[in-house]
Design a protein that fits this description.
Length: 235
């Protein structure tokens, strides 16, 4: 078994910052990832006021536009297999669920029941290109950022799970570290997790020089040039 590069406390620490700040830090600690690894389309957040979520990914794919073609028992077995997969984790998890329909979101997988089931299984929230519903009855504190809000289940069913998915342009694999909030989501390389806080501290100190200068009554282009120069000297 591979040595774990981070602990639950490391993931908990990353929930202190929003997802754009995490992306800023990755520009320093994982510069090759600067132009990829994050979502590219807007989401609807179940509750924009909820704090960021960060956990290891549980990946799956769904469809809803047509019946699965399986028997009722097979559909039930697929759903139970999904729940067992989600539950088999010793770290907090984030579900990343790709909707494969030509028009994603025709049927909502997420609502009152599934948010409560998944929260009980240790899931912090979900990133999905599909839809969700039951806005007033979702499990408290369970964040969903989804592609749409929709009133119906339609024929929603689990297609498969534990494989690679792509949600709004973000590729994600089983056990990837995912950080998400109302802005979207990003995959954090495992070997970068523990380096992110120090990078954020550096960025914050650099930005403070510029932001403090912007608030001065004598702020002008010359002052901005001076502030940018000072910021560059901070390491």
């Amino acid at each position: 078994m591979a040595e774990r590069l981070f602990e639950p406390a490391d993931l908990e620490a990353l929930r202190r910052w929003d997802t754009p700040t995490i992306c800023n830090a990755l520009e320093i600690v994982a510069p090759a990832r600067r132009g990829r690894g994050f979502t590219l389309k807007p989401f609807t957040a179940a509750d924009p006021a909820l704090p960021p979520i960060c956990g290891v990914a549980r990946t799956g794919r769904i469809r809803a536009a047509a019946p699965s073609g399986r028997t009722r028992e097979q559909d039930r077995d697929a759903r139970l297999g999904w729940y067992e997969y989600v539950a088999a984790a010793d770290l907090p998890t984030v579900v990343v669920l790709e909707d494969l329909d030509e028009t994603p979101g025709i049927g909502a997988f997420w609502g009152e029941v599934n948010t409560n089931v998944h929260k009980g299984l240790g899931v912090l929230g979900c990133v999905t290109s599909g839809s969700f519903r039951d806005l007033d009855m979702l499990a408290p504190g369970f964040q969903i950022i989804g592609g749409a809000v929709n009133p119906s289940h339609a024929h929603v069913h689990i297609v498969d799970f534990r494989g690679d998915v792509v949600v709004h342009g973000m590729p994600c694999s089983h056990e990837d570290v995912v950080h998400a909030d109302r802005h979207g989501a990003v995959v954090i390389p495992a070997d970068a997790v523990r380096a992110v806080p120090a990078a954020i501290d550096l960025i914050t100190r650099r930005e403070k020089v510029v932001l403090d200068m912007c608030k001065r009554s004598d702020f002008n282009i010359a002052a901005l040039r001076e502030a940018l120069s000072k910021a560059d000297e901070i390491h």
